[in-house]
Amino acid sequence: MSILTKPSHIGRKISRIRELKDMKQEALAQALGTNQQAISAMENSETIDDDKLKEVAKALGVTVEAIKNFSEENMINYFNTFTDHSAGTFNNHCTFNPLDKMMELVDENRKLYERLLESEKEKNAYLEKGFKEK
Q: How far apart are the C-alpha atoms of 41 and 13, rounded to whole Å?
């Protein structure tokens, strides 16, 4: 009995890497000299020829191996180790914990909400005082 493994969907990997790089299909299309519809079709394809894959990798600033071996679990390692510096791109290393930054933003948002709520309470008290005087 043989176990068949599901083939790797290279188009989905390209799509995910493009999204992680905060790049729209139109931007990738422009870098490849094509249109957005062609990028959409490529991202829906299970396979892509090697020459096209090299062009896409260069446009995304990663290596062909990074695309072929991409997985959600290992994405940070791929972006840190497979960046193609010969293409003139540089890998930015994160010097902070993104979760800490997110929690700082949550706290800041909470404080702003509390200030807004206090301001609304003061406004309501002022209006009530004005109505009572009339």
A: 13
By residue count, the chain amounts to: 134
**Mean of pLDDT over the chain:** 82
For the chain, list residues with pLDDT below 70: 1-7, 73-94
Its sign, for the CA torsion 41, 47, 52, 58, is positive
3-state helix, strand, coil in the chain (%, to 5): 65, 0, 30
The span from the first CA to the last CA of the chain, in angstroms, equals 89
The CA distance from 129 to 32, in Å, is: 66
- Asked whether the whole model's pTM tops 0.85, one would answer no
**Angle, in degrees to the nearest 10, between helices 10-20 and 50-60:** 10
The Cα–Cα gap between 108 and 111 comes to 5
